[in-house]
Design a protein that fits this description.
421 residues, alpha/beta, seven-stranded parallel β-sheet, three-stranded parallel β-sheet, 17 helices, 14% strand
Length: 421
C-alpha cells in the first residue's frame, strides 16, 4: 500500500525527549511551521510545562505535555492516550528520548548499562509498538532517532553505541514487517552526527573531567529539519551531517584503519579538561530547558549533504555536481587505485607472460595497490599452487604496506571530510 503523509499543518506529532536538545528544537520548529497539535513527552515536568505554555501562547499550535519515562510501557501508552483524547489520534510519532554514558565499558556498572538500554532501546521498542498500534489504520510516520553510531562504533561510549546499533536493527526489521503487511506507515531512521545539545551534560560520566562531543559538531536545527522532512516524506533513513555518511563509507571500506584512526584521536577529543559536573541524567530527570550544549569549538549550522538529500528539487544541481565530486573524492581516497583495475587479471597476465615470476607480479600489486596484496597472493595460491609458498612469504614481508596505505587513506579522507561537509 502506498504511504501518503499529511502536510505538517494537518498533523499531530508526538515527540519523546521533548524537554531539551533535539526534541525541544523539533517541537519549537514544528510549532513555527503550524502543525495542528503537539504531544510533548519527557521525564522533566517543569521543562515540559514551560514548553507547553510557550507553544500554546503562540496561538497556532495546540500542545499538551505528558510526563513519562519511555522505559515504562504503561507511561508510553499514556502518551498515546493523551493524543487520542485531545486530538483524536496522531499522525507522526518521534522516538527521540535518549541518554549516554562516558567511560570505558569495563568501568561502567551493570546497573548503569542496563538503565541506558532501558531508555535508548526499550524506550524505542515501547514507543514503536504503541505508535504502530495506533497508526496501522489511519496511517502516518514512525520516526526513530538513531545515530551515526548506529553504523560506526567509537570508544568511551560503548553502551550508547550498542543501543544505537540495536535501534537501527529494530527499525530496519519493523520497516520490513510493516511493508510486508502493507500498512500505510512510513518507518524512518534518522542518524545524526555529533550535535550541539546538552547531551554531554546529561550523560552519566565516569571520566575525570567534563566530556565533549568529538568534532565535527552540527546544530540541532539540522536534525529538527530532517525529522520534519521525514514526517511529510516517506523515506527509509537519513543522515544528519555529511561527516556521518562519510564515516559510514570509511567503516565499510577500511574498517580496521578507521579503528586505528579513532583510537588515536577520539580518546583525547572526548575530554574537555574542564571540571567534572555532578549531574546524572541517566537515572533522574533533568530540568535543563536548553536547546544547545557547551561545545567549545565550531558548530556547523548547515550541511551540504543533508540539504541535498532533504531538498532534492531545490538542490538538484548541487546534488549532481557538489555531491558527486565529494563522493568521487571519498572513493578516490578510500577505494582501490585505478591500476591495476583487477588484481587477479594483472597477476594472471604476469604469470601467462612470465611463468614463475610471482614476485614480480606481487611487486606490481604492492606498488600500485598495496591493500590488495593479500588478494593477489590468494589468487596465486588458487591458480598456481606450486608458487603458493613464495606468494605467502612475499605477503608476510610486505604486509605492513597495506596497513600504511590504509592509514594514509583514512587520514586523507578525514581531512577531506572537514572541507566537503
Amino acid at each position: 500500500m502506498p504511504v501518503t503523509l499529511k502536510p505538517l499543518a494537518e498533523q499531530v506529532i508526538v515527540i519523546t525527549g521533548a524537554s531539551s536538545g533535539i526534541g525541544l528544537v523539533t517541537a519549537r520548529m514544528a510549532a513555527q511551521r503550524g502543525v495542528r497539535g503537539l504531544v510533548l513527552a519527557a521525564r522533566s515536568d517543569d521543562a515540559l510545562s514551560q514548553l507547553e505554555q510557550e507553544i500554546n501562547a503562540q496561538g497556532t499550535t495546540q500542545a499538551v505535555a505528558v510526563v513519562a519515562d519511555v522505559a515504562d510501557p504503561e507511561a508510553v501508552r499514556r502518551i498515546a492516550q493523551a493524543a487520542t483524547e485531545l486530538f483524536g489520534g496522531f499522525d507522526t510519532w518521534v522516538n527521540n528520548a535518549g541518554v549516554s554514558i562516558y567511560g570505558r565499558v569495563t568501568e561502567v556498572s551493570d546497573e548503569d548499562h542496563r538503565r541506558l538500554f532501558e531508555t535508548n532501546f526499550w524506550g524505542v521498542v515501547n514507543g514503536s509498538r504503541v505508535a504502530l498500534a495506533n497508526l496501522r489504520e489511519r496511517g502516518g510516520a514512525l520516526i526513530n532517532i538513531g545515530s551515526t553510531l548506529s553504523d560506526r562504533a567509537i570508544p568511551l561510549q560503548g553502551m550508547y553505541v550498542a543501543s544505537k546499533h540495536a535501534v537501527k536493527g529494530l527499525t530496519d526489521a519493523l520497516r520490513m514487517e510493516v511493508e510486508e503487511a502493507k500498512l500505510p506507515v512510513s518507518v524512518t531512521l534518522i542518524k545524526p552526527a555529533a550535535i550541539d545539545t546538552p547531551y554531554p551534560a546529561h550523560a552519566k560520566n565516569y571520566m575525570q573531567d567534563f566530556p565533549a562531543n568529538p568534532p565535527p559538531v552540527y546544530a540541532p536545527e539540522l536534525v529538527a529539519e530532517t525529522i520534519l522532512y521525514a514526517a511529510e516524506h516517506p523515506v527509509r533513513d537519513l543522515f544528519v551531517g555529511g561527516a556521518g555518511k562519510a564515516f559510514q563509507v570509511m567503516e565499510h571500506v577500511v574498517p580496521r584503519a578507521t579503528d586505528k584512526f579513532m583510537e588515536r584521536g577520539l580518546f583525547g577529543q572526548m575530554h574537555t579538561g574542564r571540571p567534572k559536573r555532578q549531574r546524572d541524567g541517566l537515572h533522574a530527570k533533568n530540568d535543563d530547558f536548553r536547546e544547545r550544549g557547551d561545545h567549545d569549538g565550531m558548530v556547523r549550522e548547515r550541511s551540504l549533504y543533508t540539504a541535498a538529500v532533504t531538498h532534492p528539487k531545490a538542490t538538484a544541481v548541487l546534488a549532481l555536481v557538489g555531491l558527486s565530486a565529494a563522493a568521487a573524492g571519498v572513493t578516490a581516497l578510500l577505494m582501490t587505485p585505478s591500476k591495476p583495475k583487477s588484481t587477479s587479471d594483472k597477476v594472471a597476465d604476469y604469470l601467462r607472460r612470465s611463468p614463475g615470476k610471482v614476485s614480480e607480479a606481487l611487486a606490481y600489486v604492492r606498488k600500485h595497490a598495496p591493500h590488495q596484496l593479500a588478494d593477489a597472493a590468494a589468487y596465486v595460491q588458487k591458480h598456481a599452487p606450486k608458487y603458493a609458498a613464495e606468494a605467502s612469504d612475499y605477503v608476510q614481508r610486505y604486509a605492513g604496506d597495506a596497513s600504511d596505505y590504509a592509514r594514509r587513506s583514512t587520514r586523507q579522507a578525514a581531512k577531506a571530510v572537514r572541507g566537503w561537509w
